[in-house]
Every structure is written in C-alpha cells, then in structure tokens.
Amino acid sequence: MKKVDKFVLKSFVGPLVLTFFIVLFILIMQFLWMYIDELVGKGLDFKVLAELLFQFSLTFVPTALPLAILLASLMTFGNMGEYNELTALKSSGIPLQRIMKPLMILTGILVVSVFLFSNYIVPIANKEARSLLFDIRRKRPDITLQAGTFTYDIDGFSIKVANKDPETNRLDKILIYDEREKRGNVSVIYADSGYIRISPDNTAMIMTLYNGNSFTEIEEKDVPPNNRRFPSRKDEFKEQTIVLSLSGFDLERSDNLFRSTSWMLKMGELSHFIDSLTILTNSRFDGYYKDFLNNYLYKEILNPVGLSEKSILSDIDQTRSPFSNVDSVFNALSNIDQEMAILNTIENVRETGTFIDERAEAMKVSKSAVVAYKADWHKKLTLPFACLIFFFIGAPLGAIIRKGGLGTPSVISVLFFVIWYVISLFGEKLVEGLVVHPVIGMWASSYILLPIGILLTYKAATDSGMMNLETYTESAKNTFKAIKRFFSFKKIKK
Length: 494
Description:
Elements: H1 3-39, H2 46-82, H3 85-91, H4 96-138, E1 150-151, E2 157-164, E3 170-178, E4 187-198, E5 204-217, E6 232-245, H5 267-302, H6 309-317, H7 326-331, H8 335-401, H9 407-432, H10 438-442, H11 444-461, H12 469-493
Helix pairs in contact: 1-2, 1-4, 2-4, 2-8, 2-9, 4-8, 5-8, 8-9, 8-11, 9-11
C-alpha cells in the first residue's frame, strides 16, 4: 500500500468512526424521546434499559452508516481541498479517481458488511428489542394508592382510601370491592384503618385491616327469577389480613413473539413468505371469482331474467357475453314477470356490489401483506446501496467545495440525507398503498440520487468550478459588463 493510500485512509477512518457514533447517538436519543413515556415509572432495572438501548442501537446501524459515510467523505476531501493537499496530489500527476480508490474499496467492504449485518444481525436484534419493548409495555407500574380516588391496578379489585400517611403508610377508611367472580360489586370490605406491605418476593400485597366489616351477596342457584330473595352475609372483624396477588407487576419476558413479522426475517425467509403469500392470495382470488360466478352472476343477476346456467356457460366458453341473449328472453316474459325480474335483479345487483366491495377489501389486505414483505426484502439492499451513493456524493462534493470541519459538511450532509429519507419514505408509502411496484418505490431514492453522485464525481474529476463562488461572481461581472456595453452602444448609435 502506497503512502498516499495510507494517508487518505487515515484521514477518512477517523471522521467515519466519530460521525458514525454521533449519528447513532442521535438516533438512540430520538428513540428515547418517542418511548420515554412508556419507560418512565415502570421500575425497570438499569440492566433492562441497557439491554433495550443496545438491541435498538443494533437496528439503527444500517441507517446510521450511510449518513456517517456521507459526512466523513465530505469532511475528508473538504479538509484536503482546504489545505491544498488535493492540489498537491493532482499537481504530482495523481488523478482524483486514484485518490478515491482506497476509499472506494473500503466503502465496498462496508457495503457488503452492512448487507450481511442487515440480513443476519438486524432481524435478531429487532426480535429481541421489540419483544423486550412489548414486555415493558405490558408491565404495569407500581401500585399507587391516592387518597380520595379508586385504584384499579390490581386485577379483580377496586380500592379507595380516604387518607394516607406517607411516613407510617397508614390508611384510613379503606373501601375494597372484590370483583374476581365477575358478578359485579357483590363483595365489599370496609375498614376504619389499615396498613399495606409488599411480600419479600414482590409477588403479593398484604393488607392488614382493623375495625371493619364485610358484606357479601350469596349467589342463588337453580332459583326462578321471581322467587329470588338475594341472601347476603355480613361479618364484623377487629383485625383481618388480605393477600392480593401482584402478578403482572414484574417484568415477564416473553419468547417467540413476532416470529413471522417482515422486519424479523432474513432475505431467504422473506422470499419464502412472499411466495407462500402470493400463492395464497391467488388461490383466494380464484375462490372469490368462482363464488361470484356461481352464487351471484348465475343465480342472482341473470337467472331472474330467465337465462339458464347452461346457456350462460355455453356463451362464456364460446367467448361471448352472457348478456347477449338477455333482451330476447326478457321480451318473451309477461309484464308482471318483467317487473318482478327487474326488481329482483336490482336487489341482487346491490347484494353483488356489497359482495364485491367486501372481497375487494379482503384482497387489498392480502396484497398489502405480500407488499410489506417485498418492501422489507428490497430494504435490505437499498440501505447498503445508499452507502455507495453517499460516498460518490460526499467525496467529490468535498473536493469541489474545499471546506473541512464539521460546519459546512454537516449542513450539506443533513440536506442530502433528508432528501434521501423523504424520497425513501414517500416511495415506501406508495408501495404500501399499492400505488407503485416495490421495485419502483423502494429504489426511488437510489435512482434519483445516483445520477447526482455520478455528475458530481465527473465535475470533481474535471476540476469543474460549479461549486466555486468565485466562478459565479466572475460570470456575473462579465454578464453585467456585456449588458452595460450593449446599452452604451445603443446610446451612441442614437
């Protein structure tokens, strides 16, 4: 490896690592901003939060790396241009393509790595992250008994206290409705005071009640409604202990969730699901079509007019319209039969329209499921390919503008990334809405930005001044002078 290659690689790797972790940190902060309300107040351990952030950070890698490559390439070639290092290399006979060669190879390696990471690591990380987030969402917060309001945190119980002493944990005027039997408020406990404590294994809440009574309605079985007497039982107590289960308040880890979700599958598995769902959708469409012919077209629409199913099938087999004989058959009917046929046909057409609308919506759902898997299949290719596109945008653009640091490159990088993201999101929405084919929608950002990268590479290799402010300033001055000479010439001529 030549010294030039080592120099270029050394100048590129540092900014790449730095910008990659900066972008990854921003994406993680965006995730926390979105889900902070679902994480706060759950009593989660630091280990659980760290695992959640780590798994989600793995899923952000294919998105963070293209932006990092764009920003790093802009910074690298911008710095080299600003400090005249590119000028020195070009003056010694080294073209820009040769300077970019080691970074092209490195970018190619990163593209392959991102593809393998996206295909093998991201599905596992998605599964673990989404499953853990689902478990955290199911985990209920700690019990909070507030004075004057009912608490429904414990399944099957409604609890209300009039007063609560935070220092001694003493409760006054406790009212408990036991609804575990699903018969309504048939069991009520009232106590003058009491205390609450959690069991050592955090699986139960122990309530010690003092000076109260309990009221329970006894269920009557095999008694006619008119003869019910609604018996009940009332007990008084000086002290009573109630143990309430706290199942659901701890974090229960689930497994095998979302196994068939598109963003948790590899490309081979996605292809298998696409083929299976396509076959299922086609068979479902054939079933709907046969159902329409047999139960609606034959029996509901044409038969009331007087056409037989045999004649209809004969017309269809001979590629003739089954409606070609309607007029002759209809005219042969009596006036009353014609009126009845028209009324029956109108009603049957309405039912047929409802049938078609329902089946069309079902087919739309089936096709949307197929398209979702196709979109994720293409996404595993578009994200790695974006790394290559951003390199061929950032490297020549940095050589043209000749501005290093984080200021100007950051602004330009964010601008191009936003354009790429908006186009990608717009194309994905069109695909999900069944408006365009997945190849067109998912690759829209690629075939729109790739020509820009090729143009910038060509301009940078030919030392174009398209991004040089002095070029446009000088051109404006020359244009102004030409206009001024033109009007001066006209004055002299007059």
